């Protein structure tokens, strides 16, 4: 399958180096993801709060990338595939 959402990727920079929603709740996270439409950094689905998925669900932004050191993969939430 070919992702039809690549046109929604913008030249963004991370808005943070941590999941600000987890910090506000006093929680931790496992890994961080950055939305490639708006630059928000949020925790991954292995984290208790799954803020990156929640951001996709509320904002509709389809693609996020890992911001972990040494990783550059991207994930499309809509197509459920690496892009």
Commentary on this structure:
The structure is a single chain. The chain is of the alpha+beta class and 83 residues long. The chain has one domain (6-82): Zinc/RING finger domain, C3HC4 (zinc finger) (Herpes Virus-1, 2-Layer Sandwich). The chain is 18% helix and 19% strand. The mean pLDDT is 96.
Please specify the SSE layout and strand pairing.
Blueprint: H1 20-25, E1 32-35, E2 41-43, H2 51-59, E3 63-66, E4 74-76, E5 81-82
Antiparallel strand pairs: 1-2, 1-3, 3-4, 4-5
Task: Offer a few descriptive terms.
83 residues; alpha+beta; Herpes Virus-1; five-stranded antiparallel sheet; 18% helix; 19% strand
Based on Cα principal axes, name the global outline.
globular
> Uncertain segments of ≥5 residues (pLDDT<50)?
none
* Sheet with most strands: strand arrangement: 2-1-3-4-5
H/E element sequence: HEEHEEE
Sketch the major β-sheet.
5 strands, antiparallel
**CATH H-tier superfamily:** Zinc/RING finger domain, C3HC4 (zinc finger)
Distance between the termini: 10 Å
Strand segment count: 5
Question: Under CATH, the topology is which?
Answer: Herpes Virus-1
CATH architecture, please?
Answer: 2-Layer Sandwich
Helix content: 10-25%
- The count of helical stretches stands at 2
